[in-house]
């Protein structure tokens, strides 16, 4: 074969190789994208609060003494756990104690007088009966009988008055002890002392009607919690009692606590313009929070599950574009293509696929990339171009 042929072939091959190298160097590099596989699982339709909710104690008592006075005893400290009926604080009440003692003494005196008066009444009654017997036998005059019966009635009235004096003195003692109890603040429930507004020697006063003042003691039951959260009026219409819910607390990121809707507000709140909400209360198991030492007042969010479907085709909601479209990845050509699909139930995590995608398809999660467009070459983020 002539040498010119080989030379020509070599030149052609060199030109072809140069063209390939030039084409490869000028071709756009594939972009890296994060991918998710279309699979089957649970998809829910849920609603969430519009503003932060609050972790509330099931029972909370803001206490103040029933009367004004000076704190003489303070039996508690902030953060201390107390039992129902335990004395929290007491005001100076020696005058009331003395008044109760005086009433008890008066009751004892009245009892002694009552016994004497009733004994005299019994003697007068017997004398009146004796005089009536003598009158029947003709040994006593009618005037003497009448005088004896009148004396018996007077003595009986004195006995009844003395007996009533006992009741009056005892009632006065009970009243003094009731006033005395108003100076003693007892715990109405088991809980933790959250706040104390006062110290020994201070003068806490009860709140006048319509004028709130800080409570002397704020007592919180930390064995039972619920979340109160505002739900938009549009979403609240679909919520029913007993629906499952999930609770998340800002203080414990990454944790979800299962709960249940226990109360739905009976009216719409319009505290903010263009933001009408309904308060929804969700209860959940406190056992999961005991180790976390949750505190009343934590900010919390709730997600109420309105509808749920299991083993349905789904994709991450993060991959969904406006108009129910996704970027579908073709591993054979390493290219992306916009793919419309029919969406069903949806929440923040997953969206149900009714049609348009099949199990095993790969969709793009990183839809915010600036170079993302239809037909562009791409590789999975964990792969190298």
Helicity range: 25-40%
Q: At the third CATH level, what is the topology name of the largest domain? A: Elongation Factor Tu (Ef-tu), domain 3
Intertermini distance: 43 Å
Count the helices. How many?
A: 5
Which H/E pattern describes the elements?
HEEEEEEEEHHEEEEHEEEEHEEEEEEE
Second rung of CATH, namely the architecture of the largest domain: Beta Barrel
Overall mean confidence score, pLDDT: 83
Shape estimate: rod-shaped
Written account of the structure:
The chain is rod-shaped. The chain has a 6-stranded antiparallel β-barrel with strand order 4-12-16-14-13-17. It has a 4-stranded antiparallel sheet with strand order 2-22-18-19, with no helix packed on it. It starts with a helix and ends in a 5-residue tail after the last strand. With 385 residues, the protein is of the alpha+beta class. Helix 2 packs antiparallel against helix 3 (142-181). It has helices at 3-26, 94-137, 142-181, 233-236, 287-290; strands at residues 31-33, 35-37, 39-48, 53-57, 60-63, 71-74, 81-82, 87-91, 184-186, 191-196, 217-220, 225-232, 244-249, 257-264, 269-272, 275-284, 299-316, 325-330, 335-340, 342-346, 350-355, 362-364, 378-380. 30% of the residues lie in helices and 34% in strands. The chain folds into 4 domains: 31-44 and 310-380, Beta Barrel (conserved putative lor/sdh protein from methanococcus maripaludis s2 fold); 48-57 and 221-307, Efflux pump adaptor protein, beta barrel domain (Elongation Factor Tu (Ef-tu), domain 3); 66-91 and 191-219, no CATH class; 94-181. The protein is built from 5 helices and 23 strands.
